[in-house]
Specification:
The chain is of the alpha+beta class. It folds into 2 domains: 45 residues, no CATH class; 75 residues, no CATH class. The protein contains 5 helices and 3 strands, in the order ββαβαααα. The chain has a 3-stranded antiparallel beta sheet, with no helix packed on it. A hairpin with a 2-residue loop joins β1 and β2.
């Protein structure tokens, strides 16, 4: 089946054309076979009007998947840090602070910024994001 890919700002809209007139009246669009579209839905927001995945956008999509998990881990560590400080456990608080900095810097790590394929991007899920 043919689908029409339409570039709207930073997003690509997929539309099933109803008639031939629509094809000529939609700027920034391309008609493609639906079978040629990427099958990995994790990166749907990184599609371009050519029906391909833009790697730079895919990295941003992956960062958006990381951020909520990272933010939850930061919240958990904030509590642990405060408890350690209340008990005067300065070394423990320092180690927790170091982990928090690792989490803050996680979306800028080389493994992600230098990734060139979707497989490399998806493989980036550091252990610190796990409970």
């Amino acid at each position: 089946m043919k689908v029409l890919l339409i570039q709207e700002g930073d997003s690509v809209v997929v539309r099933i054309p109803v008639n031939g007139a629509e094809l000529n009246s939609v700027p920034n669009s391309k008609l493609v076979d639906s079978e040629s579209l990427p099958t990995d839905r994790d990166f749907r927001d990184a599609w371009n009007v050519e029906g391909e995945i833009d790697i730079a956008k895919a990295k941003e999509v992956w960062k958006e998947k990381i951020r909520p998990v990272r933010n939850k881990r930061l919240q958990d560590l904030d509590i642990k840090w405060m408890k350690a400080m209340e008990r005067g456990e300065v070394k423990i608080a320092g180690a927790i602070a170091a982990d928090k900095q690792v989490l803050r810097d996680i979306t800028e790590r080389e493994e992600l910024t230098q990734a060139e394929t979707l497989q490399e991007i998806k493989a980036f899920w550091p252990a610190i994001l796990e409970g």
